[in-house]
Amino acid sequence: MIRRGPRPVNIRLRRLLVMLPWLMERQTVSTQEMADHFGMTVADLVADLTLVSMCGVSQDPRDLIDLWVDDDEVHFGIPKYFERPLRLTVPEAFSLIASATAAQQLPGVDTSGALSRALAKVAEAIDVDVRDSFAVELETPESVEVLSRAIRDAMVIEFDYWSVATGQSAQRRVAPLEVFLDQDHWYLRAHDLEVKAERTFRLDRLDQVVVTGESHQVVVTPRDEWFANSEEQRKVTLQIDPAWLWVLEQYPGVSIGVAPTGQVVQHADWVNVEVVANTERWMQRLLVRLGARAIVVTPVDWQQLGPDTARTILSRYGSKKG
Amino acid sequence: MHQLERVTNLLALLLSTRRHLSFEEIRNDLKGQYPENLVAARAAFERDKAILRDEGIPIDSEVLGGDKAGMMGYRIERSSYELGDLELTGHEAAALRVAVSAMRMGQSWGEEALWKVDMDSGSTPRQQPAVQATLPVDQKLPALHEAMSRQKVVSFTYNGRSRVLEPFGLLARSGWWYLVGNDRSVGDMRTFRVDRIIGDVVVAEGETFERPVDFDVRTSFPTDLKELPDSIDVGGDIAKVRIDATDVNHVLGQYGDESLIERNSDGSAIFEIPCANVQAFEHWLLGFLDRAEVLEPAKLRQHVIDWLTDLAVGGAS
Questions:
Q1: C-beta atoms of A134 and B170 within 8 A
Q2: Does the distance separating the beta carbons of B313 and A313 come in below 8 Å?
Q3: Per-residue pLDDT for B123 more than 60?
């Protein structure tokens, strides 16, 4: 079990205010079920419920919140204070509306219109009308629907995949696990049946998808950190003009951490950041996009990668000029 | 006494009272829970109130009259505290659950909202949805969304300048959130990327505005960021770009047949690509490394050459 520090009062209060009306509707519920529902441990749950059973407008037993825990069940008595949950907070309302608005565009999610009706009820309850002023565009390519159906049916698929590294297409045969959108791009996470390992593919580089009639037994595992299955990884320390950090934000899965200081400093106001590069080509693209606004500190053998790449590209332009 | 216990008691008291209570009355009712020392008790009471307010609990305060004239009184109106019953059907609640689990927002806000609106659900085993999308989150978004839906004017700093904006719309596009509205500082419509807003967003509580009836955020600014002008002028909005044979199909997939203007015998092709936003254009172009070359406008071509030359000589400009 993971040991953690004390839980903050505000988080405990927030949970309690939604747990009490939930419990009131049920009267009796197992501590395990309740802990699972609210994403906490049974020990934390019991501690909070025990504490709250001593709360009320006075210490007169008739004023105390009427609940008790015995063995592995929680029982609720007479409702006194928190019969309904607290209204949605501003972040909760935003999150619910944004998720529902976005999910409406995912294939297969709102076929019956239930999500649209739910969204309308939420908007009405919190008294917002944001039609035409609030939108989430997911730009879902057609292949998402085909792939998600193949995932649900556990079907092996085949497709041509265009590789950035080689500029060529090759056929892949995979067990699809998950389709996801990260930043601006859609990806397919799959178990590649030829190389027998998990791989992540970009949907816009994938062509001629064929759902074979063959089913697979690959177990779907939760997604790791984005880069976990890439083939070569290197930790790179960059020194970068802070005004250009946004270029890094465009890369999904890039972890931007503060690198150890005390390394080469050429510009006093620049910051050191650490990124994980999955291929040399990926790094080349990042470096030419950053231009003279970044310098590679380590690894040493990549310190000239940016300038070298720039010269290679420039040679194209040079031949036209001369 | 644990602070959680005292805060819960305070909340129960303020919800139960029919009239506003002064701090003295509250201290009296919650006997022995606040420190003896008046200054310390006051400070503890302020901390408790701050916790409640930060949790979104609406504490109503007013200056009392009569024998407590001049003192501040507090209570919580039950109707503004409680969330009404949304009367979601089982299908509707299930659809919301799927929506929240399909959208990764890097925050637990959606999950916490679900607990409140869907009181009927038990702990159902969670199945990973086949399709998931990560929505970018920014701490400023909820406040902007709230200000926009309540038609309140906001002010913030962007690109080193302070702006006063009537927020008409909020749009997530291509992995970024955009805020669109009437910028009172320039008297015109402007688009802002939410993650580039510096510091806090201040909402002007008293003032509201009218959103134009025909406003639609989806059509309020160009879809392709390369069409959204920036401050660099290269003498044209459309660039001619030669793309190597290896990448022609990829660009056709992005821009369609109508963007292709010439095919060469070596398999390479020339495309017309929007470049009003030079920064976005160059970001796209450089992704091809040496497999693409911009031909026109000449000023844009020179801009790319200068950019690369700066990098090649290894010094910052």
A1: yes
A2: no
A3: no
| Interface mutation target, options A74, A78, A96, A116, chain B, most CBs of B under 10 Å | A96
H helix runs in chain A, sequence order: 9-26, 31-37, 42-52, 90-103, 114-125, 143-152, 245-249, 280-290, 305-321
**Percent helix, strand and coil across chain B, each rounded to 5?**
40, 25, 35
pLDDT at site B316 = 41
Instruction: Indicate the SS3 state at residue A191.
Output: strand
The three-class DSSP label of residue A258 is: strand
B308 to chain A: which residues are within 8 Å by CB? Answer: 288, 291, 310-311, 313-314, 317
pLDDT digits (tens, 9 = 90+) for A189-246: 899 998 888 888 888 888 889 999 899 988 877 666 554 444 456 788 888 887 777 7
Amino acid (one-letter) located at A210: V
Q: How far is B250 from chain A (nearest CA, A)?
A: 7
pTM to 2 decimals?
A: 0.73
Burial of A274 (0-12, 13-18, 19+ CB in 10 A): middle
In chain B, whose CA is at the least distance from the CA of A177? B130
Q: Which tens digits make up the pLDDT trace of B280-289?
A: 899 899 999 9
How many CB atoms lie under 10 A from the CB of residue B183? 18
Q: Is B225 within 8 Å of B174 (Cβ atoms)? A: yes
Q: In terms of Cα–Cα distance, which of B176, B183, B167 is closest to B217?
A: B167
pLDDT at A89 over 50: yes
The C-alpha of A45 sits at a distance from chain B's nearest C-alpha, in angstroms, of 14
Q: How far is CA B181 from CA A22, B178, B284, in A?
A: 41, 10, 28
Whether residue B83 and residue A84 make contact (CB cut-off 8 A), yes or no, is yes
Instruction: Characterize B116-145 residue by residue with b for buried, 16 or more Cβ atoms within 10 angstroms of its Cβ, and e for exposed.
Output: bbbbebeeeeeeebbbbbbbbbeebbbbbb
Rounded Cα distance, A77 and A144, in Å: 50
